[in-house]
Amino acid sequence: MNEDSQIVVPDSFVALFKPAGAIKPVESSDVIAARHELCEDMAQMLTETARSTMFELGIAEDDVLERVQQGLLAEGSVVSAAEAWWVTGRLAELLEWPLPAALG
Fold first, then answer.
1. Is the pLDDT of residue 46 over 80?
2. Contacts with 101 (C-beta within 8 Å, 6 or more apart), sequence order
3. d(Cα 10, Cα 93) in Å, to the nearest integer?
4. pTM of the full structure
């Protein structure tokens, strides 16, 4: 990652790139930073969509998050399954919604 960058990649995201029991990620810090930026932007962009979906469909927060998760896991998605989980968790955090047990 560029030494001048002020982006802080959370440990929870870096962990997506560490195999079980490994200390070092399998990707470079530049790749991880770029993937984090994509996932963070996605979570930020989904906040208004999630709120309006809940209102328009009259469904619960956990149902909205489950639908988001399913969409992120769909074929052709630009994120991996692990990144989809992280985006959904980050979205819940941004909205101050509890993460459903099924997704946690």
1. yes
2. none
3. 13
4. 0.90
